[in-house]
Amino acid sequence: MESKRQRIQELIELLNKAAYMYEQKDQEIMSNFEYDKLYDELLALEKETGLIFANSPTQKTGYEVVSELPKEQHESPMLSLDKTKEVETLKEWLGEKEGVLSWKMDGLTIVLTYRDGNLVKAVTRGNGEVGEVVTNNARVFQNVPLKISYLGELILRGEAVIRYSDFERINAKIEEGEAKYKNPRNLCSGAVRQLNNEITAKRNVNFVAFALIKTGEDCFFATRKEQFDWLRNQGFEVVEQHLVCEDNIEKSVQWFAQQIEHNDYPSDGLVLIYNDIAYGQSLGRTAKYPRDAIAFKWKDELKETKLLEIEWSASRTGLINPIAIFEPIELEGTTVSRASLHNISIMEGLELGIGDIIQVYKANMIIPQVAENLTKSGLCTIPEECPVCKGKTQIKEENDVKVLICTNPDCLAKKIKAFTHFVGRDAMNIEGLSEATIEKLIAKGFVSELADLFHLEKYEEEITKMEGFGKRSFANLITSINRARTTTPAKFIFSLGILNIGLSTAKLICKEYKNDITKVLEAKAEDLTGIEGVGEVIANTFVSFFEKENNKKMTLDVLEEIQFEPEKEQAAQVLDGKTFVITGSLTKYENRNALKEEIERLGGKVSGSVSSKTNYLINNDNTSNSSKNKKARELNIPVITEEEFIALLQEIQGEE
Question: Which H or E run contains 473?
């Protein structure tokens, strides 16, 4: 009994720590598979011994709220759901009753309250007892009705979620070299809990209703299906659901499983609830679970394979992360051969050794993870040298999690930001070199300085075997690299990533020295300050950058690889004094940057937002009600299409 008590306390500590790190710190210290396995072990021990501690995750529903948002107690506790991975258990649980099967959304649960037809309050789930008031933020969700036809008090629950398509779009807009968002759930959580709802609005948060909690006495429903239909008629997006019975529930579960890769909303399973509301409510609840609903988590497809190696991947933060490389296997319809081990603690917990037989699965049928090590040889060694710079490594504990770091402050991996900036669209414009790809190239030793990017053809055999690459994509990359060998002095200077030197400033400096790159590199601070738009701080930063020997060598090495476009005859500055804003997709110009360059070449300016100083807004969808169009109309600023811009340009040039 004593050993079982100790194991219970050990499991409670492990699970609580994992939940806290995931929910409050957005850090994963164990896989979902491992968490579920330990949770089930704890539950079984508690049932066997009858020993349940107050801090057990089987009794708690969440953690304390840590934000600065106002707090509010829920009218009724928001309980977790009991769960299963077996369809047979769902059938037994449902019995002869009718149920409603729906997605279990993976976002942030929100409670909305309406009175007199108006949205008056929005509160997060919080710890299940107390949530955070986020009413202002809910008002800017993409699809939340601010006013509904029902005038009585209405309280409903739903999930705030960000679509995968919006998540990818938001990440794509982040500057090369900057940190991308980890997943839609974390991005949504941060968006909903913002103190400034302008940021929330930009994140495209959606609200999907999944439960009606309270209405006035004049509004009665016998079934959950009726509630869903009524909420939909009030203007709410409701969770996708199927009516099921014992005979067809297995078929419905299979249908949902097939939809996962096409579902734009993130989910982590299904929810089954009795359709008969009165019957479900008559069952009551346990200390943690309501008895009228149960969650279904996908049963992970486990496959055995052999561990071939541990790859150590250095990141720009200095962390060196272990990645399991194993014999390729088919999982959930795709071939996988690698899985992140996240940190040393997880790797050591699995007791991995080269040649071990491991079990691999896809978390939520998407992300490859190592579930178990059947051999447990524990023979894997932790490298004493960084795989990139060969500097000394150090094991460090962060929040009781062991991580490996590179101690070299000049480690090349920490300079990934400089590489991603260098290949960016406004810089050298080398397509096919994402931050993730550059990180792999550095980790494999193919790249050690910027100039090395121009010699990747030497590693064709190795690169074409990298994940995401093939012969065609490699050929496209080499074509893009060769195209980048011809550029402008301004783009080259901007590509070097000099602090405070944007593309516009680089253009000003290069223009002052008539694009003579030698004179640009030898510029003195006192001369630079004489250029309109270049202040003392920028001048000193620019000069000090090239005074450093390593920066000078890096610059000269790149200059050996490139050439500058022939100087074009100075175009008539026919757009001098005019400011434009560009929005929407283009058809006449290759992209917005091409149109921007044309405007600037002719003396005009391009701004990112519409203001009283704007002369024209260029938008091919000039009749839409977009925010920029509305702003332009309010200020009586012409909204013109590309064709109208070209016609305007021809008219002005004709007058010259």
Answer: helix 471-484
- What is the residue range of 494's domain? 487-564
Instruction: Indicate if 238 and 89 belong to the same structural domain.
Output: yes
133 and 246 fall within a common domain:
yes
Amino acid at 444: K
**351 and 400 both lie in a single domain:** yes
Report the amino acid identity of residue 593: N
Q: Which residues participate in catalysis according to the annotation? A: 104
Two tokens, residue 510: 């290069």
Q: Does 58 map to a domain? A: no
Instruction: Compute CA 631 distance to the chain's CA centroid, rounded to the nearest angstrom.
Output: 30
The verdict on 389 and 250 lying in the same domain is no
DSSP code per residue over 334-370: EEEEEEE--SHHHHHHHT--TT-EEEEEEETTTEEEE
How many whole angstroms separate alpha carbon 574 and alpha carbon 228? 60
**Residue 324 to residue 357: CA distance in whole angstroms:** 12
Asked whether residue 59 is assigned to any structural domain, the reply reads no
Q: How far apart are CA 549 and CA 551, in angstroms?
A: 5
Cβ-Cβ contacts under 8 Å for 195 (sequence gap 6 or more): 68, 69
Gap between the Cα atoms of 475 and 460, Å rounded: 9
Residue 222: how many other CB atoms lie within 10 Å? 12
Q: Which residues of the chain have pLDDT under 50?
A: 61-67, 176-178
Cα(159)–Cα(167) distance, integer angstroms: 16
Residue 286 sits in the same domain as residue 324 = no
Q: Which distant-in-sequence residues (6+ apart) come within 8 Å of 178 by Cβ?
A: 417
Q: Are 95 and 101 in contact (CB under 8 A)?
A: no
Rounded distance, CA 240 to CA 228, Å?
10
Report the pLDDT value the prediction gives residue 180, as an integer from 0 to 100.
61
Count structural domains, the chain: 6
pLDDT for the residue 176: 43
What integer pLDDT is reported at residue 63 of this predicted model? 42
- Which of 434, 467, 484 is a domain's end point? 484
pTM higher than 0.85 for the full model? no
According to the model, what pLDDT value does residue 14 have?
A: 84
Helix (H) or strand (E) holding 327: strand 320-331
How far, in whole angstroms, is CA 614 from its chain's centroid? 33
Same structural domain for residues 275 and 397? no
**Do both 372 and 480 map to the same domain?**
no
The span from the CA of 186 to the CA of 206, in Å, is 14
What is the phi-psi region of residue 126: left when phi exceeds 0, alpha when psi lies from -120 to 50, beta otherwise? left
Quick one: pLDDT at residue 332? 65
Cβ burial, residue 585 (10 Å; 0-12/13-18/19+):
exposed
pLDDT of residue 252: 93
Q: What is the residue whose two structure tokens read 């993976």? A: 106
Distance of alpha carbon 43 from alpha carbon 56, whole angstroms: 10
Q: Under DSSP, is residue 580 helix (H, G, I), strand (E, B) or coil?
A: strand
What CATH number corresponds to the domain at position 520? 1.10.150.20
**Phi then psi for 520, rounded to 5 degrees?**
-60, -45
User: Residue 337 in contact with residue 331, Cβ under 8 Å?
Assistant: no
Does 583 fall in a domain?
Answer: yes
Shared-domain flag, residues 36 and 101: no
